Amino acid sequence: MLEKIIIKNLKSFKNETEISFAKTNYTILPQNVSNTDILKGAIFVGPNASGKSNVIFAIKLLLDLLFQDKSINFQFIRCLFSNDYKFSISYCFLINGKHITYSVEIEIRKSIIYENLEIDGQKLLMRAGTTATSWIAGENGLVYDEGDIDKETLFLRTLYFNTKFTSNSDLKTLMEYLQNSVYINAVERRIIHYGKKKLQIYDYLNENGTEKINSFLTKYNFNQTINYSHQSFGPNSVLILDNNDPESKYIFVKRNDIKVPIPISLESLGNQNLLQMIPAFFATLTNPGMLIIDEFSSGFHPKLERMLIKYFMNTSEYSQLFFVSHSTSLISNSVMRPDQVYSVEFNGDDGSSVHRFSDDQPRTAQNIEKMYMSGVFGGLPRIKDNFDED
Fold it and tell me: Which of 63, 120, 126, 347 has the fewest CB atoms within 10 Å distance of its CB?
């Protein structure tokens, strides 16, 4: 599980910023904490353009660099209003009871990548540019040079795909955890599974059918199920969307109270986003990994938002949910603990900063949503909204 990240000079984060996901001394919502004392997730709130999505980006970047087959333009990753042309991120994980720290620093103008990997303080990988030493397979260490290293690729990626870390079970477990992770941009409806599973709703239904989704919808009283077929039958109708293609299938929503098939394209934004997200929830809860969601609340009713968060926290054993939302109803001691809520502010030339609500030690009986909206925890828009003063 991810227990901490440290970012510097990345996107809007000019100064070194540490974000911990270790639990604090709160005792509420024990189901939101794994038995390793690492939190099962976090929410990032704050004004538009404060840097919330950049926190999500920092977590996602490691997954992209390790598993995506695409080049990344580092020019636009460093903080553009900084004079420093290098950025760095450290990721700290707790895997099999061991602390694994992987740090990467990229010097953009010189095209140099630095990497450092440690388990419980013992160095296992050190890379500077096109030279590296690895102690993963043995204490004596193996030395690599420019014939082995791609200057634009993480050497950790190269080693993993060459060896699968069969000689180190802790690193193998870490990479499986990362590869089980899923990123969702709810606005763009973009879903990436880093293990290459097909989680777009039509791909999921083609492979798995509707049974698991319908069981979920029924169990949690959504008052609807879905049908995935060429045609769907209602009490007084048969709906066929394409007579010219008898092999085609579509998603039809059937509400229990009317039982009339409704094509998913005619459903609400929230209902469409719900069906798009459900396979990703299933995937990360079945195989431990991270579920990373930008703009989580897109189209959702507050009660639906809370239900999905609670479902994840109650079902997860070691999976984690990191998400950005503008929905203040999720800032509640009945949904998220104070140590799971972070406000993000943009402070001009100093860049973005993160404030963890638990640092102010709010009591569990207090209404932290109201406290946030009154400015106690920062991360509020500074727009003028009192028109009586005009």
Answer: 120
